[in-house]
Amino acid sequence: MARRSPNFFLRKHRKWPLISSHKTKWRQAFTQNQPMVSFKQLVAQHNPLQPDFVPSLLQSLSLYNLYQSPQAYHFLIKTLLHNRQFHHIPSLLHHLQLQHFQTPEYIFTHLVKFYGNANRIQDAVDIFYRIPQFRCFPSAYSLNALLALLCRSQRGLKLLPQVLLNSLHMNIRLEESTFRLLVCTLCRMNKVAYAIEILQRMLDDGLGVNDKVFSFVLSSVCAEGDLDGEDVIGFWRGLRKLGFSPAMGDYDGVVRFLVKKGRGLDAWDVLNQMKSDGIKPGIISYTMVLNGVTAEGDYILADELFDELLMLGLVPNVYTYKAYIDALCKQNKVEEGIKMVACMEELGCKPNVLIYNTLLRAISKAGEISRARELVKEMKYKGIEMNWVSYTIIIDGLVSNGEILEACALVEEVLHKCIFIKSLTFDEVICGLCQRGLVCKALELLGKMVERSISPGARVWEALLLSSESRPKFHLVNPL
DNA sequence: CTAGGGTTAG
């Protein structure tokens, strides 16, 4: 949806009017910098370990007549911070406090951030409260710096309410950036309801909450793995009531979350909202919902959705076909699924191994071994490599249909190709061989298995012992 | 007008 005005981007990229020539600015900076440069050189000669360190720094300030220069103080503070001379800071600040110029706020934001990184939370809070004593009006800049560090630790979070309350007394106007910080912290702490409350406050205070903030909050909520589906649906409804106009990515984010949580029908609901909001869902939206409703067993709906996406002129991709074929197979419509493969090829979409595995699974379940063989041939013909899932499905199918030698041949193929399959599949084949009295073959396979450090399960030993009892010439030693 | 976004099973 084109919610942005056409000049949105123009504004962003428009060049600033060249009112002040930066030549003048540069010259000013240069003339100011002359004493600063000498001052900095002098400071570098001071030893921070001397007891008169700070007095001598102050002396150099007066030497270069830099008492009135915030930059000089900022430099001194930075020097102390970088040398981790925290104990010298209070006396320097005391001196700064006695000056008459307005102290720029960035000195305090810097201090707050540095204290935060040194894990001196209380120092950071203290200096923040003292800002007005330096003839400086704190704004959202220093507040955000402090809040950001408070939000980082459990200890900091405890101080947060008090800081917020005091910042109101300090006449700091809370801005969108501040709220965003708080809302995101709350989301991280799974306090979704509080996050909505804050968003509500923002709107009540006449702050425009832009959709980007909503969107950001929503995506952090959806990224929260252990949140309940119910919570997210509630949150989503809450946001919409607050006037959020989601973009396609927002709908898709919620859909993805709901599908992951096994709530395909709720995801379908969101898809419908999307349509009624005038946003055309993309192929990915449909594919996710298709997977979701299939997982919930609503195959009729799955059929409808597939028709619908075609009617909308969306082009299904291999993921979409996979989802649809899955739905067909779950309804035991394997032949229709196979027809779909021809269909997709006609439309220029190549089937992959996942598509064939879906079909093979359904066919094996139905016990149609010869049909499975045909599909394997088809795969080979089309150059689609079988992976471990394909082999597992086929081997299982062969074993349960009594085609034990063919299964054994496939296991050998797997070993030859160095494809990893689960040891359970080996076990099954070895047991099958034993049951048929093919103990030699079973032992041979067991040997290959052990050779590759794949450990057989207990049932393998049982089956081998059982058959060796009837043929005592085998002397079995458990190599483990 | 459309692409975009970015997914898959034992």
TrEMBL record:
Keywords recorded for this protein, A-Z: Repeat
Spans of repeat PPR: 175-209, 247-281, 282-316, 317-351, 352-386, 422-456
GO biological process: chloroplast-nucleus signaling pathway; mitochondria-nucleus signaling pathway
Coiled coil feature spans: none
GO cellular component labels: chloroplast
PROSITE patterns (alphabetical): PPR
Pfam families: PPR, PPR_2, PPR_3
Gene3D superfamilies (UniProt xref): Tetratricopeptide repeat domain
PANTHER family: PENTATRICOPEPTIDE REPEAT-CONTAINING PROTEIN GUN1, CHLOROPLASTIC, PPR_LONG DOMAIN-CONTAINING PROTEIN
NCBIfam families according to UniProt: PPR
Family under the similarity heading: Belongs to the PPR family. P subfamily.
Name by which UniProt lists this protein: Pentatricopeptide repeat-containing protein
Organism: Gossypium laxum
